[in-house]
Amino acid sequence: MPTVAIVEDDSALRQVLGRGLREEGFEVPVCVSTGSDLLRQIDGVTPEVFVVDIGLPDVDGRDLCLALRARGVDTPVLFLTARGGITDRLAGFHSGADDYLPKPFHFDELVVRLLALIRRSGSQRPAPPGLHLDPASHTLRDGARAVSLTPTEFRMLALLLARRGEVVRRQALINAAWPPGAMVHDNTLDAYVVRLRRKLTEIGRAGVVTTIRGVGYSIS
Questions:
Q1: CB 202 within 8 A of CB 152
Q2: Contact predicate 64/87, CB 8 Å
Q3: pLDDT of res. 123
């Protein structure tokens, strides 16, 4: 059976999703109301697709998606949201989402989209050892050491970790960390990278961010 994890804070909709998807032949091992609950419960669970409400009570669903990607989770993510404007959709895709379904929606369309995402999905990469991003508190942890991040720092670092070993272009970092259409100067991005390096050094991860001059950055 295809496996789906659901995070939706509306209790009535969450029950409908869980019951309806089970009736359609899905296994639903995780069906929770907050991003923090999802991150706690997916250890040892390997869903084939996530259904994530963007407007969660404890965390922006886009930050939750970034945190999953930073853990090395490549599982497809479908966002549910009442905010269906182009700006919101772009921000969702820049955070690593694979599909976007505005509310209200037809249940049959949700099922078809989930099955299509599962067919196209690939394998997961291992998570970077030791490092964990908490999207609710915007905290980076490495064992017992922790450091607080601003939302912008969190989104930049999450994208770098999600694509570790690759060169992440400057524009990709801007797209992930700032709202669509924001005017971000080169020195602003560079200043945030300096701050990230400083905070990584605080938890014993000095030198992990490399500058690829004129292109972007990479993290090891």
A1: no
A2: no
A3: 47
